[in-house]
Specification:
The protein is mainly alpha-helical and 499 residues long. 84% of the residues lie in helices and 0% in strands. The protein is built from 20 helices and no strands. The radius of gyration is 22 Å and the shape is globular.
Length: 499
């Protein structure tokens, strides 16, 4: 039992740091959304969001899955062959640069053919921002490697604070001084330069001193890297496609103004996923290590605890967002109020998906990146068809419904594959207790506040949040043992003791 407590303490300490970083990133990302919405309006912010969405999808492909490869491979190399880490990183960096540069040239030629006829401003913004894709791809791979070698604090500072923290100021300056939507999109991407320099500098300091003189990994190691990375290339591109495709399709089918409103609602969901992001950052390298060592019982306990915490801490955020969706959308401007129903649908889809825990990370860290790619391909096709069918009939709500259904389908497929490939049997029953706890302790007081003050009332939002926080804290205190919260207490005890 002491081993379980130690595992939970370590997970809690890293998880708390990851959560703080994810929360900071989400807050800064939301600040960026407000800047875009207030300064550019629905149509202008829709153009910039579509351009940055294309950037994200292309970057997801051109990093060639090497960020996930770093998280999968480096923890294993630290056990088996630490002297090979530097050579492997050199190979990964060279591959990323070559692929991303070639892709940019292709997209530069194709952009006018894709967007110019209907959306010339989108084409101009895309052509401007994609030249920074190699910078972004290399920065993401470097940050993932930094995370994989165990420097969680440095990863958080670079990826969750420095990168998103510089965006609102740069974007606001570009919008105010130039008025060019293309320049605003470029300002959005420039912080990747800061992240790249900082990540590689910090990473080089952490490489083993006993590194071999080889500057390039041998052929078997290169094959190992590419065999894992290539399926992840498709998966990563598809993952970004799932995040941004709805915005792009809404823009194509309903116009840039609708895309701007939908993107605003989607940003709230991304902010609400901070718990999932924080836990995934922490558990992925641990999943890889435990699977490599064959310690399935320990893996099961880690996955169970992480799932409980994900549902427990993520569900309340989305309940509050769903209840007070009209008030939240009004923060972006009165023109964005039409997206409140979209936000409700997205919140419901996210809550259902949380029940599967970090199932995608578990599948990928088991070495089945090819199956993860197949899953994303299936889900992307379903999402495209769903948007084409539903958006003309239901508008933005149709896009939200398609996204929610696809997230649930993705989790179901990954769960079946984890059972088949690892022997681990994720049990959804473990998530019932934290789900009910969140629904009762947060859903009830927030609903009462909304009935009294109104769902579009900022006063109601503040009262509902305060009352929900008090009830949630009391529930966690009473149910701390079944919810595995002793690990969280150990973190604060260790800090008081100087641990």
């Amino acid at each position: 039992m002491s081993g379980d407590r130690t595992d939970r303490r370590g997970l809690a300490r890293s998880g708390a740091l990851g959560f703080a970083g994810a929360a900071a990133s989400a807050g800064l990302g939301f600040a960026l959304t407000v800047v875009l919405a207030r300064m550019l309006g629905p149509a202008g912010s829709g153009v910039v969001t579509q351009a940055t969405g294309v950037f994200a999808v292309v970057m997801g492909l051109t990093k060639v899955g090497l960020d996930s490869t770093s998280i999968y491979l480096l923890p294993r190399l630290r056990i088996d062959a630490p002297e090979q880490i530097r050579a492997c990183l050199t190979f990964m960096a060279a591959t990323t640069i070559g692929v991303s540069a070639a892709t940019v040239l292709v997209l530069e030629a194709a952009a006018p053919l894709i967007w110019s006829a209907r959306e010339p401003e989108v084409a101009e913004a895309v052509r401007a921002v994609v030249w920074l894709v190699p910078l972004g791809s290399l920065a993401v791979v470097a940050a993932a490697a930094l995370r994989a070698v165990g420097s969680m604090r440095e990863y958080v500072v670079v990826q969750n604070i420095a990168l998103p923290g510089s965006r609102p100021l740069l974007v606001a300056a570009a919008a105010a001084l130039s008025g060019s939507l293309a320049l605003v999109a470029v300002a959005w991407a420039l912080p990747f330069l800061v992240a790249l320099v900082a990540s590689w500098t910090l990473l080089l300091r952490r490489l083993p001193a006993s590194a071999s003189s080889a500057r390039w990994p041998d052929a078997p190691r290169r094959r190992e890297i590419l065999s894992f990375a290539l399926p992840r290339t498709l998966t990563a591109g598809l993952e970004q496609g799932l995040v941004w495709l709805d915005v792009l399709l809404v823009g194509a089918l309903a116009g840039s103004a609708a895309a701007g409103v939908y993107a605003g609602a989607s940003r709230f969901i991304q902010a609400g996923l901070i718990v999932d992001t924080a836990l995934r950052v922490v558990v992925s390298p641990r999943f890889s290590r435990l699977l490599h060592l064959g310690r399935l019982d320990e893996l099961d306990r880690l996955y169970s605890t992480a799932t409980t915490w994900l549902v427990l801490f993520a569900t309340p955020i989305h309940i509050l967002m769903a209840v007070f969706a009209p008030a939240l959308m009004r923060l972006l401007g009165d023109e964005f109020a039409s997206g409140s129903a979209v936000l409700v649908v997205l919140c419901l889809g996210a809550v259902v998906t949380f029940l599967a825990g970090n199932i995608h990370s578990l599948l990928i860290m088991s070495g089945r990146s090819g199956w993860a790619a197949v899953n994303k391909a299936v889900v992307l096709v379903v999402n495209v068809v769903g948007n084409i069918v539903l958006v003309p009939r239901l508008g933005m709500i149709g896009a939200a419904a398609a996204w929610a259904a696809c997230m649930v389908l993705d989790a179901l497929m990954a769960g079946v594959q984890v059972i088949a490939f690892t022997g681990l049997r994720p049990r959804i029953g473990r998530a019932v207790l934290p789900l009910l706890g969140g629904l009762v302790s947060v859903g009830a007081p927030s609903a009462v506040a909304a009935l009294i003050a109104g769902r579009d009332s900022f006063t109601g939002l503040l009262i509902g949040t305060a009352a929900s926080a008090a009830c949630f804290a009391l529930m966690c205190r009473v149910m701390r043992r079944p919810l595995h919260l002793s690990g969280l207490g150990a973190v604060f005890s260790a800090r008081r003791d100087g641990g």
